[in-house]
Every structure is written in structure tokens, then in C-alpha cells.
TrEMBL record:
Coiled-coil spans in chain: none
Organism: Kryptolebias marmoratus (Mangrove killifish)
Segments crossing the lipid bilayer: none
Biased composition (Acidic residues): 23-34
Polar residues biased stretches: 1-15
Region (Disordered): 1-36
InterPro entries: Calmodulin_Regulator_PCP4-like
Source organism, top-level taxon: Eukaryota
Protein name: Si:dkey-46i9.1
Signal peptide: none
Family: Belongs to the PCP4 family.
Amino acid sequence: MASKNSANSSQTTPADNKKPQEQEEEIDIDLEAPETEKAALAIQNQFRRFQKKKK
């Protein structure tokens, strides 16, 4: 069990170490909504353009 804990501790980020009382907010997103699909496509297109400029 010690090896499992050490693996988890190496994967934590500074954001994970804020306050122990804070719990991650659960976000409910309807993945089937047309607005969500449009937003995802827009983000993907911008990322592809960024990758092309980067090269």
C-alpha cells in the first residue's frame, strides 16, 4: 500500500494541495446538447489553427 500512496503523491499538483476542506465542484454538462457540440467544434478548430501556426 505504501507504493500506491507514493505514486499518488507524485501525481498531485499545487492546485490539489490548496485546502483539505475544499471539494471539487461537480459540473453537470449535457454532452448531447447542440450548444455543447458547437462549442467543442469551435475549441477544436482553434486548437488546430494554433498547432498549424506553431509548426
